[in-house]
Design brief:
This protein is mostly helical. Helices cover about 50% and strands about 5% of the residues. The chain has 3 domains: about 5-130, HUPs (Rossmann fold); about 140-205 and about 235-325, Serine Threonine Protein Phosphatase 5, Tetratricopeptide repeat; about 345-505, DNA Cyclobutane Dipyrimidine Photolyase, subunit A, domain 3 (Orthogonal Bundle), CATH 1.10.579. The chain contains 20 helices and 7 strands. It has a 5-stranded parallel β-sheet with strand order 3-2-1-4-5, with helices on both faces. α2 (about 50-65) runs antiparallel to α7 (about 205-215), α8 (about 235-250) packs across α11 (about 300-325) and α13 (about 370-385) packs across α17 (about 460-470). It is globular and about 80 Å long. The structure holds flavin-adenine dinucleotide (FAD), ligand DLZ and iron/sulfur cluster. Flavin-adenine dinucleotide binds near residues 271, 272, 314 and 401.
Amino acid sequence: MTSRRILVPILGDQLSLGIASLRDIDPAGAIVLMMEVAEETTYVRHHKAKIAFLFAAMRHHAERLRGEGWAVEYTRLDDPANAGSFTGEVARAVERHGPERIVVTEAGEWRVAAMLDSWETLFGLPVDIRPDDRFIAAHAEFAEWAKDRRELRMEFFYREMRRKTGLLMDGDKPAGGQWNFDKDNRKPAKRDLAMPRPLAFAPDAVTREVFDLVAERFADHPGSLDAFDYAVTAADAERQASYFFKHALPEFGAYQDAMLSGERHLWHSILSPYINAGLLDPLDLCRRAEAEYRGGRAPLNSVEGYVRQIVGWREYMRGIYWLEGPDYVTRNFLNARRALPGFYWTGETQMHCMAEALGQTLATAHAHHIQRLMVTGNFALLIGADPAQVHRWYLEIYVDAYEWVELPNTLGMSQFADGGLLGSKPYISSGAYIDRMSDYCGSCRYDVKQRTGPDACPFNALYWDFLARNREKLGSNHRLAMPYRTWDKMDDGTQGALRASAATFLDTLVSDY
Ligand code: FAD
Ligand code: DLZ
Ligand code: SF4
């Protein structure tokens, strides 16, 4: 037993010095508990780099907290006494220290929230579960906004967040007289030698030790550690943020949806792993982006686009996740049942766009938004993949994936499995969209201009097959009226050939993973 009366568990995505559970606590009377636990590493088969990133960041954060005067107890995964779960590790700490109470910041997902809720009864101690105020909208605030609305559209929620934070506001008006400048964005990119190259961080001794652990314990998990170059400290994450503001933000808006072979980053920030784990503060990043605009160093379309991704999409996704409850994950509006093809875990496919997005994902645990949405997500939706399985894949494969943000993005935005709660139409496209936004098709074994036959781009027939197959559920969606009209104008022979071509391709898919 110690004189330290408060136990403060810090979870893996709570690596912020200012986290609510440490606020107003006297370090002299508290034990901070951080835990690498088997249950969290295996509830899905996380990409090796995701586990390595989080463990290295956790170990560095523990040192940082110690430097700030906190007494930190840190359980490593390979500690023989490790109980293997958050609850088991907290039980051991309660046994060791006999605290008077537990203070913890709320968990980021339903599964872990249920664990925290059980502690009071289990340990017979008061458990103070504090709201995670690194987010701008509290749960109740989002629920209040959503109440009585027929449609939950991000754009309107986003405006509320702009008003609340004052970001890009001139009095009560949006800067530049418009809320959204996307009409200036969505340009395809040309390869450019002056393109920004995000910083690469060489693994230090702490990270290398984690690599050894991950290589040994998670050899059967997908992905590789070979290309790992993530920041694992707040200081290095901050270096990456500064680099982004200086070199990439000005073109971020214009090229947000562009894709180029062999280019992982383009003008994206590559900051999501750090924001989601707590190494960077989202509101601070938005204020700094605004300062770039106000200082004349970045145009409004880029800065507004960046701010919208964070105070709009990111907050909105979290709001939907908590609003919809733990059974959101079971939605399957289109009754899609196909298993995801094995090449999602190997990258071995002749579709060049898929091979690029998957190859990069397996190598680095990161792909940018349009690759996730319009390449791998689009393909999964078109083939009728089971949304629960698609969700598990995204959750395991991306370094920034936590269920609160991944699930609504995958199941809602990308797979339309909630029937349009989150997006007014499915994000589907034929090969033409990918051809317009990338240079992928030029070096593909398939021909993007052909619609049927063995050499035709598979996205083309799959697109029409998807619409025809799901007509009962999607036929009345006014945003799909145009493609359905085009489909109806095709003669029977053309329709039949497209559906037969799709069927032939679907038959080739092997789900052996
Ligand atoms: P940038 O393009 O530089 O964008 C700036 C920031 O905006 C990001 O760092 C991120 O914090 C935020 N952001 C942008 N779009 C979104 C969005 N749709 N939802 C939430 N935040 C957003 N993002 C995750 O953080 N975790 C996930 O698990 C995740 N899963 C996704 C699954 C699918 C199917 C799709 C389509 C998108 C998913 N996203 C997810 C959103 C987005 O793809 C990533 O946030 C982005 O690619 C991260 O890279 P970046 O930091 O370079 O982002
Ligand atoms: C994702 C993850 C992994 C792989 N491992 C751990 C871990 O060992 N310890 C930990 O504290 N957190 C881990 N996490 C993050 C959690 O699974 C979870 O996503 C967050 O705590 C949010 O609830
Ligand atoms: Fe992808 Fe089709 Fe283009 Fe090939 S032709 S890269 S499969 S969109």
